[in-house]
Structures are given as structure tokens and as C-alpha cells.
Queue: 4 jobs
Job 1
Amino acid sequence: MQGFEKMPCWFLGANAPRGYYSKFDQLFQKSPDGRCFLLKGGPGTGKSTMLKKIAEALSEKGLEPELIFCSADTESLDAVLSSDGNFSAADATLPHAAEPKYPGVYETTVDLCSCWDEEILRQNGGKIVSLFDKNRRLHEEARRYISAAASLLDEAARLGMDSVFQEKVEKTALRLCARELGRKSRRKGTEKQRFLSAVTDKGAFFFSGTPKILCERIYLIDDDPGAVSRIFMSTVRKCALESGFDIITCRCPIFPSEKIEHVFIPELKLGFMTANRRHKFEVKPYRIIHSRRFTDRNRFAKNKIRIKFALRSAKNLIDEAVLCMKEAKAVHDELESCYIPAMDFSKVEEKTAKILDLI
């Protein structure tokens, strides 16, 4: 896609221990001048292609789109959002199904189901039903592996926390924020929530290009057990919002409700990121902060073997989840091959053209 490398890329949903965790509500922020297009259709019906064309049109208009990808297929677009937040388009089917709250005023439903020949689909009905069911079973199996991995990662963080000087972590984060953020403000900052990584069919996938687009300087917190980074990132997030900065908070796909992995402050071109053996990414840091400086080494040594075992076992479980995701992706590809022959893509192009005219 033209200009793809210059657009921030994210996930807005992830396979998590308790099921699919979605932040797609971030796309549907009503605005007096806003437009939101909800795309409805099955696999292979042209949703991702339509979203790519919308992203290109937004980019040509200088609206710097954000690209939201599918965690089940990292090459497939799930949504596009303009930089000003006034224009969005999203795949509104499961697992991130959405219905309009202000139909015709703010949201417009784009029905791609009207572009297929239902008789052709019904001829392959048995196969299609079987493939959908198999796809769901594989995703459920992947989530069970991820849930088991989460228990072990949580145990590693708990064991690590026993040896962490929590007050020292907070003081370091506050001191760093005072130097970098400087100002105090009566205005409270706003927050976007995103995922920069996810467990996908390609493994633990990370959008390494996005931090390079957003940041000139990155503080990297090197923390394998995950105890120090939890305290540090929560403190940075709170300070940035209280200082009146608009931020992008990236949640951990394994602990989406509890753990923050990265915080970006676009206005300052500044980022705070977590690094560990599960996050292998090509980011040149401005400064690395090692978690061991906040750790009582003698107390950590007592739990070191258990922490290593928990981290290694969690990695093995995540690897099994990835295998399930790969198989699910192959099943999804087969589903697409069932739908594509039934589609009249000239009708899809007509619907795409109407959306592009509105940009």
C-alpha cells in the first residue's frame, strides 16, 4: 500500500485469557462533523481492500490515517482512523461486531452481503458451516494456551515484585517525568488506547515501525519478570495525563485490563516502552533503564529459578497458541475461497467509490 510505512499501525483487539479483548469502541467517538462507516460482510468480501483504499484517500488529503490490523491475520486491515478522529471505517463483524448508535447521522452501515450470490454460498453451506465452527474451536484453543501462559507470567511478576523497591521505581519515574514533561496544567490530557503487539499467526507480533514514526526519543524499560515496568508505566501515564498531555497508552495483550506496556506522548515525540525476551523489536532507545537497579539482588536470587521456569513455560504455551492461530488462519483462507466466487466485486467497488467521494 502506498505510503504504508509512514502510517502508525496498531491492533485494537487481541486474543486474551478471558476471550477476545476489544478496544474498537475507540473508533466510534461521535463528533458533529464525524463520519463512521461500519462494514458488514463475510470473509473474502472485500472489507480489507476497501479499507486500504480509504486509507490511501485519507493520506492523499493529508489526514494521516492510523491503520488497525487484525490480530488473527496481520496482513488484513480491520479499521482506518483519520488523524483528527472525525473519519473512521471499520470491519464491524465478529469478533468486533458493532451496530450504529446514531444511524445515518454519525454511523453508516455498508452492507457487503448485498454483493454476493446467496445461492452459490448455500450450495457450499455444509463446508462453510464446518469451516466457521473449526475456526472458532481453534481460536478458543489458542485462548486456553494464552490463559495458561498468563497464569505463569503473573506468577513471575508476583515473584519479581517481592524483591522490587517499589518506592524507588515511583520516584525515578516521577523525577524523569518532571524533567521531560515539565509543565503543570489545569487541563487533563486525553488518552487513546491501542495494542502495539499481539499473539498472532506469526508469533508475538510487534509493529516496530510505529514507535519510529511517533518518537524521536524512547526510554526503554528492560524488565523480564514484568514487575518494575508495571509500576513505572502506570506512574508515567498518570503524570502525563495530569500534565495535560494527550497520550497513547498501549496495553499488554496478555493482561489487557491490568498492565500497560508502552506510553507515547506524540506532542513531545516521546515514548516510554517495555522490553523483555518476549518483545524483540528494532527500536533504538534514547536511554535504557534496567529493572535490576530497583531490585534487591539477594531476595531476587531466591526466586530466580522459579521466575525463569515460569517465563520459559509461558513462552512454550504461547508458541502452542501461535500454532493454533496459524491453523485458524489457514481455515479462514479456505473460507475466503468459498465466498470469493459468490461475490460481485463491481458492486463492492461502487460502494467504495461512494465512501471515497465523501472524504
Job 2
Amino acid sequence: MIRSCEAGGHLCLMASEEEDDVIKIPERFPMGKYVLLFDPLDGSSNIDVGVTIGTIFSIHRRVTMGRAGQLADCLQRGSTQVAAGYILYGSSTMLVYTTGDGVHGFTYDPSAGEFFLSHENIRVPHKGGTYSLNEGNYSRWTDGLRAWVDWLKEDEKSSGRPYGARYVGSLVADFHRTLLKGGVFAYPADSKSPQGKLRLLYEAAPLAFIAEAAGGAASDGERRILDIQPKELHERTPLFIGSREDVETALAFAHGRR
């Protein structure tokens, strides 16, 4: 990804979940006005078992002056993104992206060597019927979160319960299903990871930008993901993302309002 993007003339800086520091554009290449943040291979622990993985990316306009980009160009709120998306490597290869006005999906046709528009103007259902999270962490959650998951499992047809449990273990794959089918994905804070586990800049913020552009919602449990001001490159955050009503219900339980 670095080799593919550094020479294009559009970027002044990059940052990756796999690199400790920012990735500078070599002096021999022209400098652009954008910053690229990316998780090059989300779900990489699933490679050897054939589970869907993907690449997540986020693009911001630079905010500093001078020829080269600076750290401050990367540490911007998610609401300032000009584009975000992901590439999914599974039963088909898909590119899903937004510039903030609609979300569109393109599927790769290997016979033509091109991506074709296959999912135009994706909209997250206002309410879904599935939940996606690692229930192995149940004992580490707050009482409110445990009550929420227990509530999702109750049999009450009038409210669409019980919800179906769906968890791949690759964030990008779980989010893609939630984006298309509705429901909620959650990776809450717990006693082992009180700050959350997912990376704000490379995972949560770009997917939140996509979710909101498709009519969904994304929160860290207290505030909108896109409003968080990052303080460091590899900052972590809890995440609740998906159908707006389902996210709001999860937060109500988390705050003791249900």
C-alpha cells in the first residue's frame, strides 16, 4: 500500500496500524494535500482459516503548512474525513466507500479486471435482527452490558427478539454484514481493556463515517465516534456501530436507562 500510494502526488503523509510512527512521503515524490490512514489487513489472524478479511482506509485533508505533512494532519476528528472505505477479501472482492454523501459498493470482476458498481446507495436498516460481539468477554462487562445481551436473547416476537448471534471475528467482515443487513456490532470496553480494543483512526472512525453516511450510528458508549479528538496515532476506543435504533438501545442499557 505504501509503494502504491506514496508516488501519486496526492498525499503528504500516511499512517498505518502496523507502523509505530507516521509514514513520510519520500522527498523525490511530489507532495499532495491529503493524509491516508489505513489498517492494511484487518482480521489478519483469520488468514490461515480462510475467514473474510479486509483493508480499511480513511482520508483527511492536511491542516498544517509546509511541504511535508505532520502528525497533526493525522490527529483529526473523524467528522473531518473527506472519504473512507474498505476492501473486502472474501467470497468476492468488494470496495465499499463514501465521501460523506451516500455509500456505494463495487464488486471486482476478475474476467474484466475491473470493479463494477453492485451496491448503489447502501442504507443501513433502521433496526436489524442480529448482534455481533465476542461473548467470551461477558464476565468482564458491566452489569448494563450483560443485561443488554441477555435482553437480546429473550423470546419476545413483538419486539423482534431473540436476535440472531453473528460474529466472524474480523471487524471489517462483521461490519459489512451489519451495513447490509442491519443490527449492531459492538466491541465495548471491559475490565481487561478499559479504553477499548479497536483503533480509533484506522478502524472505528472510518467505519463510523461509512455507517453515518448510510443512515446508521456509531458511538464509543458515551459520545459519537466522529466527535472524538484523537490524542495519539494508535489510540483505542470502544465501539457500538450499526442500525441507529439498535445502537441507541445498547447505549440505553449501558447507561442504566433500560
Job 3
Amino acid sequence: MRDFDEGKVLHYFDELIRVDSTTGHYEAIQEKLLSLLEEMGYAGTTTRKGGVIVTVGGEGDPLCVSAHVDDIGLMVRRINADGTLNVCPVGGLYPFYCVTENVRVYTRAGKVYTGTVCRTPNSIHVTEEELRTQLASYRKDVCVVLDENVSTADETRALGVETGDIIALEARPTVSGGYLKSRFVDDKACAAVLLAFLDALKKDKVTLPRKLYAYFAMYEEVGHGTVVLPHDVADFLAVDIAPTGPDQTSSERKVSIFAQDSRFPYHYRFTNELIEAARRAGVDFVVDVFTPHYGSDGDPVVCAGYDVRHAAIGPGTANSHGYERTHMLGLKNTYDLLAAYLNL
């Protein structure tokens, strides 16, 4: 099978990152995935919750590999008297990681408005001590200001904006020095790796040593992305970011094999198989433990009661749930470990 193609991975990442897909708002990204898979020659099926599943091929001992494509974001909680929007997070998006970001507000009638996440008050020159000493809070002093001439709640409602509307943040992707920087590297970079892997399998007409499913999940960021699986899955492998930090072994230039997350350990023997595959193939990897605030799509699979072995791998990634960064080598090593585990 052909080697990691950086250009192909960046192409798929660009295709995915252009589509806003805050958790729950999945229709557009689902359509994009189905289109990309059809171009490769695959027929994707969908779940009632928006997931896209592909039967890749092979016989026996089915393995399901997943990557999620939902993003953290915001939702309109209420419309303020001055026409700005009070918001709440969708997934783990903290105020200090989104204030000053540009956003798109999606109304349920199909209109889209742009705006900015702001502190209130919003100018440090006239409220210096307040802005420097207070931690931003969605409930008290953070709002979305629309790029519209509105100054009352009624004027904002006249636009069609209401409580419950989804708000997506601009991703701002760029590549510099081999580093991919963007919002939503978690997990669209991993989904791009999986798409490139599927494309290589199809173009090279690879004969798989076991049955393989690819699962592009929604709702991972709120903890229930993969509660429905094909009935015969024996092993489930989540491909997700490996957060870096002072207590972590993860590196942006390596693939991490997860030993445990904030809920429970991953399957010991399955994890050992991944470690041995990485060693045999010369993949640059580390083993890491992610606590106290991390989980992958392997967790809801187990909690849903599936009798499967579960494991997780992924590229080291900095600034998780903010403006994230990984390295192309981390993505390459993730791709190479997938190939090595399948003996391709």
C-alpha cells in the first residue's frame, strides 16, 4: 500500500474544516463525507444520529476504526436586551479559549449571520482592571456581537435569531514549519488521515487481512458518538488527538497509543498488539495516559454494552479545545500505525 501522502491528508483536512459541524449540527458534514467517499468508490451508510459508516472490505474478525467530525462550539442561550447573544458551550469550549474569535450563527430557518465572541465590557482601555483581573464567564460577561445593525433584543429576533441556534467558530487553518495549526484538529485532522488511508486502500486494491469498517462519528464531543455499531465488530479503534502537556509523554511529532483515559483503561492485549505493531514497523510512538478530562469514542462503545476490545491512538496535539497544533509527522505516524496494525 502507498505511503503517507501529506498533500492528500491536507486536501481532506481542508475539505472537512471548511464545513461547520458543531455537535448536533451534522447534516452538512455528513453530506460532505458521503460525497468524498463516493468519489473514492465507497458507499457510506448513515446512522440516525448522523454518523457515516463504510464497509471497507475483508473477511473475518471485524475491526472498526473511528474518527469523529463534530466540533465544539456555542449555542444561543438567550438574547440580551442590547441585541447581543448570551451563549453556552456545546462540548468543552471554555470562554478563555474563544473570546475574540469570529463566529457564524446558524438559525433554524437556514439563515447564517457572522459575529464575534466578546467580553462585556469589551475595551480594556476603558475597563482596564476589570478585564485584567476577572476570568471570563459565559453567564456573566461574555457575549456574541452580531455583525448587524441591532441594538435591542427585538431587532435581533427580527433577523430570525433565537435561543437554541448553533454558533460555529472560524477554524483559521494554516501550515507552517510542518505544523498544522487550526481549531478542530480534534478531530478533523484524524478524520483526514482515515480518509487518506481509505483512498490508498481503494487505489491500490489492497486485500485486507480482516474485515474493516470506517466510522465517522458525530456527538463525540458530548460523549455519545459511537453508541451504535455494526453487529459483528470485534475490535474498536478510535483515532483521536493525544493532548500534550507537562505530565504527558505525547509529542506532536509522534503517534500516541492510549493506555487509559479519564474513565478507564483501554483493552490491555489490544493495546499491546498496537505497541508491537509500531515497534515492528519502526513507527515513532509513545504510550500515554490521559487524565483527568479526556475520553475517546472507545468509551461510549464500552458503556453501550458492546462486547468488543477497544483501543485508541492519535497524533500528539497541543492546545486541545483551543487553537490546536499538531505536526505532519504525528499524522504520518498515525497513518503508519494503522497500516502496520493491519500488516499492510
Job 4
Amino acid sequence: MKYMIIDGSQGEGGGQVLRTALTLSIFTQQNIELINIRAGRKKTGLLRQHLTSVLAAQEICGAITEGVELGSTRIRFSPGKVKSGNFQFAIGTAGSTVLVCQTILPVLALAKGSSTITFEGGTHNGMSPSLSFLEQSFLPVLKSMGVNCNVRISTLGFYPAGGGKWQIVIEPTQALKPIHLTDAGCDFASDMDNCSLNALISLLPASIGQREITKAQEILDWQDALGQVQEVTTPGPGNSFQLCIDSKTHRNVFEVVGELGVSAERVAKRAAGRVNKYIYAQAAVEEHLADQLLLLIALAGSGSFTTTKPSLHTSTNVDVIKQLLGKEILLKQLTDTLWRVSLE
């Protein structure tokens, strides 16, 4: 049996190489051998959330695998045909359930029937897209491409306790519609109705969230924007601060997860700094959503969007997509701060 070799040490050398390769392996029915998995990380190989991503990919298509175990830096993956249905995946740590979901969501979005998947683990850990991002930003774009998804949350799970549990129902489509997101999100001088501030708080004083909101309003001059502290119940304490900007097509979410020893004001400054970078560029899509959209436009066959300077994470994803699909996503600099990402 022949395998396409995917080097996990390329580019940023993290888990995104693994996840993108798994998704496209199933989509193309191409056998792959992943080597040097997460070689760019201090702790290399498959951690719990990466192992769960492989096992999830394996289950939805009946793949034949080799070397799939904790700590493995080399695996083989031979996909079968995608099967829709009911699935349940538990990470067992505060690792990102959203990243596990995003490994299998694109191919289930093109399956022949609907699927219901239940996830258990982390939902907001600060090192990956959160469940808030998935629900508010990513899924609305996917809906515009023809795929309806419904999220039901039982409980959130902050790092390090984890313990989140949620479910997604995916109603697939025969083919993804191309998207073109190139206009700046809104007129920031007058559209405060499109801007909002949200602080999720669990087992911590609500005043932390209010301080985050107050500081961000001061930095961004968003006094007229809606701000709210949302108290949630989770297995462990946590805080997620989110600045949101709505456009006609989607929501851009700028999120910073609070950390022990980091003040509320510092959290707010980090989030506001990302917003200011985005506003100055006059981009349509913020950096993290841009990275997640690459696979969608590749599967759709075409698409484009404008964003801020692509990260190493993004350029690595472009390279993996090119290797597996033979399609080259172009990154073109338009100004000193604005870039166009396209697949023609």
C-alpha cells in the first residue's frame, strides 16, 4: 500500500498539520503517513486532544491506522468512505474539543446524511479556537456555504479543569458554495451597534469581567457598545473575554482567556490590541478565522477573503493543502497591513 508522506515538522510544526492532513486524506481517499508529528512543540507527538482527533477521523470513515497512540510521532492513516451518524468523543483532559470537531466537521458537512456528535473536554483553553468562536464566527460562514449546524451546550470547560460537554448536529450539503469576503467589516466610526464586549466568568468574581469590559471600552472608545458579564457554571474556574465585530456576513471574535496572575486590565489590553490591528488593516476576516477558512475554500474549489498579515500557522496550512489537493491558495499583500487570500 502506498502512502503520501506528510512531514509534521514543516512550518509551525504543530497539530494543524495533523488535523488538515487527516481531513484531506478522508476527502481525497488518499493514504497518508505522518512523520515528525508536532516536532515544533516542546512536547512532541500525539497529546490527548491530537489522539482524539485521529480516533475521531478513524471512526467516521472506518480508517485503517498504524501507530496511533499517545506520544506517537509517526502514524499511518488509510481512509474508508465517510459514514454519517451519531458519534461521541471524550478527550479526558482540558484539550480542545473544538479542534477535534474541526478535524471531522468539513467531511461530515459533505456526507450523505446528517450527523450528531457529542464532545467532552475543554472548550476555552486560550491556546486554540474556543467553542464561542466556533458557534459565533466559524459556523455562520459555513452556513453561508450551505451547511447548517446546531450547537447544544451542556457545560463549558475552562483550562485546566476541562469537563465541558456539548453537541453539534450537522446537516450536510452536496457541495460547498464558494465565499468571497473582501469588504471591511463595518464603519467603525458609526457602527457601535455592530460591536460588543462579552466576559464569560465561572467561579470567579463578576467584577473581573466588568473590569475587562471597562478597560476595553476605554482603549477602543467603545463606550456606546453593548457590554455584558455572563456568569456560567463549569467544573473549574475560568474567564473568557471576547470583543466582537459583526459584519453583513459573519462575526469576528477577538478572544483572550484569563490566566492566573494576569490582571483583568491586561487581558482587555491584549484583546483590544488585536481589534485595533484588525481595524487599521480594514480587513474582512480576523487572523484566526482566516486560518480556519483555508480548508473550506479549498474544499469548495474557490473563494477569497481579506485579512491581516498571515501567520506562520496559516502559511503552513496552505502548504499542507497544496500537497494533498494540488491546489495553491494565493497570499497577496495589498497594503502594509492588508492581505488577500484566494483560490481561483
